[in-house]
Design a protein that fits this description.
By secondary structure, this protein is mostly beta strands. The protein is 6% helix and 41% strand. Strands 20, 21, 22, 23, 24, 25, 26, 27, 28, 29 and 30 form an eleven-stranded antiparallel sheet that branches. A hairpin with a 5-residue loop joins strand 26 (334-340) and strand 27. 28% of the residues are buried.
Length: 392
């Protein structure tokens, strides 16, 4: 009977229950385990994109001592050294985590450790004081048995994974609250872009630090040549004469910028109406309160469309059926085209034919459904759309 009871206790321990009633048999207990680092882990250290594939550090640890013979699962955690509640750790479970019956190791690249640091709510561009520890989990929910190793402290300066941004600031306004343009990657400075509504006035570009802090920005005004930028203190402001919507672009590799006005967004493609081609767009209405472009209109099931911004000044054409009216586009009036990405309901600039097309739900049988279409381009490089079917 004693051997049977021991077997039952061991089975219960491995399924997540902490103890057995027979006090003569072993119960799980927090006996701890040690985490160690090798010489690759240096403190203080500075992480750079140029060394992203290098090894930041190697860690190894003993098997967690839970009392009886058990097998735990492990994750590596990083948290702010000053987070006394330990409420916001980030966890690493990548390929560098190797667990076997005889060893437990974690090898993290610079890029991997940098990503963990960027995930902390207290991330900053200056030196950070963080701790690394191992979390041991025995059993399964709802009652896992958890232990933590000793922490290893590291002082490290990471690089931000945020996209570089610039604010286009009207004289007298606060840079941190003004519309922004963003680059396509954390290392790019050539393709800043953003959509915004501008009032008449004098503007300059404000570039914050890599963490998007505008405390000590680099300020760009107009250069000696039209469309050029200068960071000289004496550089004049950039004048905006006409209120309206603009596509704003900047390139800091050659110090140039463009401000391109447009009057509306809309959809174009075979989903809007058959027989009229893809150059005929239904203009959207702008909602200043939500900063979205919207329109209710019929779309043909199974057909495709994209979004286009245009500078239209002509009269809308009202067809017999179906409504709503459409605007015949021209090459000279087209400003930008947005197509879908791999992320659902996300958009990016994409003028390549056949790529980035959005397909209307349903079988391509000629049936039309009315949709409310919403487009949000107020966040640079984070453009989104929404399709909501309108009941008949």
């Amino acid at each position: 009977m004693k051997n049977i009871l021991k077997a039952i206790c061991s089975a219960i321990i491995l399924t997540g229950v902490i103890s057995c009633e027979d006090t003569k048999d072993p119960n799980v207990s927090p006996n701890g385990f040690e985490l160690r680092k090798d010489g690759t882990v240096t403190s203080p250290s500075v992480l750079t994109q140029a060394t992203a594939t290098d090894v930041f550090g190697k860690f190894e640890w003993d098997s967690a001592n839970n009392g009886p013979a058990t097998v735990s699962s492990y994750t590596l955690q990083v948290f702010d050294h000053n987070d006394t509640s330990l409420s916001n750790p980030v966890e690493y479970t990548g390929n560098g985590l190797v667990i076997s019956p005889t060893s437990r190791k974690a090898t993290l690249t610079v890029a991997e450790f940098n990503t963990l640091l960027n995930g902390l709510p207290t991330f900053k561009c200056s030196e950070m004081d963080v701790d690394v520890r191992i979390k041991s989990v025995l059993g399964i929910n709802p009652n896992p048995y958890i232990q933590y190793s000793n922490p290893i402290n590291v002082k490290v300066t990471a690089y931000s994974l945020k996209l570089p941004v610039m604010a286009f600031v009207k004289a007298g306004n606060t840079p941190s609250t003004e519309p922004r343009i963003a680059a396509s990657t954390p290392t790019s400075n050539t393709d800043y872009v953003g959509y915004m509504y501008l009032e008449p006035g004098n503007y300059k570009f404000y570039q914050p630090d890599a963490c998007q802090d505008f405390t000590t920005p680099t300020i760009y005004g107009g250069g000696a040549i039209a469309g050029s930028l200068s960071s000289a203190t004496s550089a004049p402001s950039i004048a905006v004469a006409t209120a309206g919507h603009y596509l704003v672009k900047a390139n800091l590799s050659n110090n140039t910028y463009t401000l391109t006005p447009f009057t509306t967004f809309g959809v174009f493609g075979t989903a809007t109406r058959s027989g009229l081609g893809t150059g005929f767009q239904v203009p959207f209405d702008y909602d200043a309160a939500t900063k979205t472009w919207t329109k209710e209109m019929d779309l043909i099931r199974g057909k495709k469309f994209k979004f286009k911004s245009n500078l239209w000044t002509g009269t809308l054409v009202v067809p017999p059926l179906p409504n709503p009216p459409y605007a015949p586009g021209t090459a000279s009036s087209s400003v930008s085209i947005l197509g879908k990405t791999a992320t659902p309901f996300s958009l990016e600039e994409n003028s390549t034919a056949g790529q980035g097309d959005i397909t209307v739900p349903g079988t391509d049988d000629g049936t039309r459904d009315k949709y409310k279409i919403e487009l949000d381009v107020s966040k640079p490089r984070n453009y989104t759309y929404k399709l909501t079917i309108v009941p008949n």
